[in-house]
Amino acid sequence: MPMAASHAASAVPPVDEALMRETIRTLSSDEYEGRGPGTAAEPKTLDAIIARFKAAGLQPGNKGQDGKPTWLQDVPTATITATNRSPLTITGGAQSATVTSMTFKPSTEFVAGSYRITPHTEVKDSELVFVGYGINAPELGWNDYAGIDMHGKTAVILVNDPDYAMEGENGLFRGRRMTYYGRWTYKFEEAARQGATGALIIHDTFPAAYGWQVVESSWSGAQHFVQTANDGADQTGANGWIQKPVAEAILKAAGKDLAALTAAAQAKGFKPVPLGLKASLSFDNTIEKANSHNVVGLLPGKTRPDEYVLYSAHWDHLGRCKPDATGDDICNGAVDNATGVAALAALAKMNAAAGGTARSQVFLAVTLEESGLLGSEYYAQNPVFPLAKTVGGVNMDALAVGGPAKDITVTGGDKSELTTILRKVEGEMGLSESPEEHPERGHYYRSDHFSFAKRGVPMFDVARGTDLVVGGKAAGQAASDDYTNVRYHQPSDQYQESWDISGMVQDVKLFYRLGRELADSSVWPNWHPNDEFRAIRDKSLAEAKGK
Questions:
Q1: How many CB atoms lie within 10 A of CB 37?
Q2: What pTM, to 2 d.p., does this model score?
């Protein structure tokens, strides 16, 4: 890959710290009530972001139905709440014994929901098939669905990747570092692509990286989705999780052993195993439809305006939430993610002041990140600017309070040719690179950049490290622990005038240079060979060149 155009540190415009403070202070004030999408606070939030984009010199990035420029993109959503949940009933028999019926309780032993917008969900006498890790990765020569027609059947799936237990990252699926194939979202998506009626993931705490209580609480309430033209008809009828002891009991009834099948599924060439059992479950769905908005700003390119570099940050937070000991029930979201929007505003002003780049730059403030990345997902499904012409981008989520650091961390590790630009810029800024903590937890797949990445667009997800210039790793870790344990998703995530934001300024300078290098270059970064997103990027680039 050719080296990107150089952009010396001396050419970086100053970061408007006053603008950043004012943006964080405003968006995280009680007046904005935690920036809940669809609440009375949404119009205020949108107006505040648009005002800052206008002041920076951006243009409206979208067009309305009347063809006139607009700052907003509608994001239609559906919320589905399952009620009247039946038990999970297993019937059938193994060669060695006959099983009349086994039933498992909702919530405590299994959970299930539907991606389909329908008032009632029923899976009746669906044949169970153990499909290992439920992965179809042609670039790796791996297909857990080889040789079986899944129509009418329910897939029983292991969580994570086949080589998750490795200490390093040298496995076919990057060992301890989770790939997208290990994420539960992928497993449900692939089961749907295979035509399955249902999909049940076997919960196991270590490879899942969280206990059953997380699964139970996450799936017991309302589920949020982007509305689609077919109301999710192309998805499985029901998706869910089962406790590991439940899976062991089901497989035993089929004359199988979970441990033995798990070991077999970790080797290339594994074939799906029909279990000779049938599953039934049902529940009703209460459906609510709503509309929120993304904000889209544009700084047109000077020589290649039909090529785009993206800066993104989510504007939403939790709104009103569980009260703390003082009775405060507003989750203000100062760090998460008023800081990201403040960085977006500062970057817009810096880039406009420096003059347009060769490529166009898009500044995207997305909604409903806290509800499952829905704003970015909707944009990626319905891009204002074609994803095949989107070169790459930088996502910003929850910039840490405190001073500058000596290091940065890269979520997801070295996945794409964006690393060439990153290593160049971090070297010029005198920064080192520290390993990501807990790569097995798959954090790369849990923020808005992922909505673009899974459709082939390489995205930076870079954060300031914890080795601070003042105080070192001890101070950095203490600050990180304080935020995670005391403020994250709590009413205490509030702006304070005493904040040291010099570290955020360092972040913005880094983000500016990464985006600017990409926007002034002629490179088209791709994912590394055998990365899970390489094939879709190759396809989109080939289609773009063919037009």
A1: 26
A2: 0.89
